[in-house]
Amino acid sequence: MTHIKRKIVTILTDAHLPDADKIAQLRQLEADSLAKERSATEGMTPVDGDDGEDLKTIENALRRLGEEPVEAGAATL
Fold it and tell me: In angstroms, what CA-CA distances link 18 with 11, 13, 14, 58?
């Protein structure tokens, strides 16, 4: 399990954290992951094979909380 996936599980299973706070933390992870993908497409950072998988996991976690992920791809941000 990747670091991001462990973090997502921790966020989702925290019974003391309101859903709004969980969503805010997941949105930040989503923004960070999209920024990392964008920088990789611009040649700024090496491509990590788990980046796309981490983003999918973040999107699924947001859906579990009734939210839709950002529709824009990494290159359109």
Answer: 10, 11, 9, 17
As a whole number of angstroms, the distance between CA 27 and CA 33 comes to 10
Residue 53 in domain: yes
Number of domains in the chain: 1
Whole-prediction pTM value? 0.79
Spatial contact of 35 and 28, defined as CB atoms under 8 Å apart: no
pLDDT one-digit tens code per residue, 20-67: 999 999 999 999 988 888 876 666 655 555 657 889 999 999 999 999
